[in-house]
Amino acid sequence: MIFLGKIMAVHSYKGGTGKTLVSVNLAASFAKHNKKVCLMDLDFRAPSLATFFRSEKVEYWLNDYLNGTCKIDRVLIDLRHRINGGGELFVGLSNPSTEAMREMSAKDRKWEMRALGRLLALRNSLINDKGFDYLIFDTSPGLQYSSINAIVAADLVIVATTFDRSDVEGTKRMLHELYDLFEKKTGIVVNKVLYDVSSKSGRTDLQNKMKEMYQVPVISIIPCFCDVSRAEGASIFTQEKPEHPFAKIVDEMADRIETNDLM
Amino acid sequence: MNHYTCFVRLNKHNLLLHLYTRKTLWGAKVTRQQALGGKSLQVLEKIRQNLEKLNEKMEIMIELQKRDRKDSQLLPDAPLDVMTLLSMPDHLRKTAMTVCRLGRATANEVAEQTHRARAVESSYLNQLVIMGHLKKERVGRKAYFYVEKESQG
């Protein structure tokens, strides 16, 4: 069986589509199923994982790795203790300080090119040498340098989208004018769906409709769960509530990616 | 095709034909005088290497001529960043991305990944060198192409 890939970039056209929610919970789901996973925050303009994981005393950030001032081992934080299951979860955080964000937004093309080289090198250093099963890049929306670097370095691009009309149109454009140009395998995750997807046939109909609309496989359709919104990104939702329908959907998503079963 | 291109291509063809004939004659000599085989083979190998170098120089000349450049200088270094990759024609992007992925590769190795002919990849790789996006280094008989070394993490 051909696996879809070990490096995934979670990207979107617009902000607020649920990239971080999908990234964090997908990483946790893989880890729960005995995989060694590394989640990286490549949204340098609006970092969120540092807050999400409430990490204190971070010695090195992903910014430092991309600047070439440290090795990737120094950046990774072990979060095994936050995972129920036999796997391992590590995170690489981007620096949320205003100064770091300003510095990252002023980088030139040469720096971005070196950063791409360093992202590409992660396949060797983390997957081949350190035995990671999956690397997940949580990116910033739209055509940002760091996001496109992540897309180029990834084997699979997971595009988080909603039913917002401008998001749908923008996602369609990106599929043909960005991911296709880089010949990337792409899968769609439709988030915050307000339709009734409680019945299996209803969900299948919607999946077929989405597949026809985007012309790429649909990895998952996630209904708009008030419980998830209420959690306010304060914890790994699927770890806190493993019996919640959202947790089941994320587990299905992980299973589909692992077995290369995209609809 | 203009006169200059015709001239270059014709000369390239004649030169290759001439050297091929010489190579064949020398090859026949090797069969007759097997005692001198080792030395002759060395000379043949030298000719083959020179032929390859000439071939590459011809490709560069043709490419420079296409770009209306009279001098033999390559274009200055142009970072191979993602935005540059996005703006490239599809055929060159495929080659450039393969080199990015492999880090350092010969035309043969790139061709294995892209499933295109080695000669085609060699031409695209040399175009990318001329455009300043890739560097080229010769190690013995092999020519390696890579993205500027400092960019590799």
- Radius of gyration of CA atoms of chain B, rounded to a whole number: 18 Å
What order do the helices and strands of chain B follow? HHHHEHHEE
First-last Cα distance of chain A: 16 Å
Q: Classify the helix fraction of chain A into a percent range.
A: 40-55%
Which parts of chain A are unreliable, with pLDDT below 50 for 5 consecutive residues or more?
Answer: none
Overview of the molecule:
The complex is a heterodimer of chains A (263) and B (153). Chain A has 263 residues and is α/β, with parallel strands linked by helices. Chain A has a single domain, classed as 3-Layer(aba) Sandwich (Rossmann fold). In chain A, 45% of the residues lie in helices and 17% in strands. The mean pLDDT of chain A is 88. With 153 residues, chain B is mainly alpha-helical. Chain B has two domains: 64 residues; 70 residues, Arc Repressor Mutant, subunit A. Chain B has six helices and three strands. In chain B, helix 1 packs antiparallel against helix 2, helix 2 crosses helix 6 and helix 4 crosses helix 6. Chain B is elongated, with a radius of gyration of 18 Å. The N and C termini of chain B lie far apart (43 Å). The N terminus of chain B is likely disordered. Classes of the chains: A alpha/beta (263), B mainly alpha (153). Chains A and B meet through helix 6 and helix 7 of A and helix 3 and helix 4 of B.
Give a quick precis of the structure.
Chain A is of the alpha/beta class.
